[in-house]
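Reviewers of the previous submission asked for a worked example of the structure-prediction workflow described in the proposal, so we include one complete record here. The input consisted solely of the amino acid sequence. No template or homolog information was supplied to the procedure at any stage.
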Amino acid sequence: MNKMLKKLSVIFMAMILLGSLASPIYAKASTSKTKQVTLTEKSRLFTKQGGYGRKSTVAAKKKVTIIKTTKDKWMQTKDKKWIKNGFTGDYIYLSKKTTTYKKEKGSKSSTKLAAGIYKVSVANTNGWIKVKKGSKTYWIKSGKFVDSYIDLGNKKMQDQIVTILNKERAKKNLKPLKQDPKLTKLAIIRSLDMEKNRYFSHTSPTYGSWSNLLKGSGYNTNASGENIAAGYPTATSFMKGWMNSPGHKANILSPNYQKVGIGIVVSGKGAQYPTYGTQIFAK
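From that input alone, the workflow returned the following structure tokens.
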């Protein structure tokens, strides 16, 4: 095992960006029991689980009465709506150039949307979604809600990295960074994109600069940065690699940042590296 780890290819890069940034999945229920659940994040009610049939939002710290919970954490309310903590379905990620339609179930449009994140205005129960690009709207029937990516990272390693990161900041009398759910989802998208498309860079071959994800998701900040790494087997080794690099270390110990999102992905077969890691920092 040790010999294998020694041979493990490890590479990493760092980048700092300071400035203004303008900016149907269904599952069978696993439990059925009425209970009160307090939401920790703003969430939205839906007609169907998966983010379809958009209804009103529910603020964080509000209690909802739940009668059913699925294995993928969707909860059915007593009035037969569906809700998942932190899932609003406001943005969708397109991993490749996507065909658009003139209207729901209509003919194809001449416009194709580039890979990236788009604002959702309608998500019907039949799977058709209307998105915004500038002042124009388009119908699409593919893509994945940004909120769904929260379940696709290695949460244990991500949490461990945040803990180690804040210990390093404490040594320099810096305030701890708060783990931000939206940044976490974007970081996971970044790591998955590198794994899928077999590249290692701050610039994606599909959506361009990593900062385009911040802009597309409407994340407003005047200071942001990204660290990426690949090949490390543990949270400790990820952090050791980043801390041993001046550029990465500068991001981790920057007093300009207040929030962080960590995305760790354990690769499938055919990937260039066994793991990919992304840190996204913001003020």
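The mean pLDDT is 90. We consider this example representative of the routine output the project will generate in years two and three.
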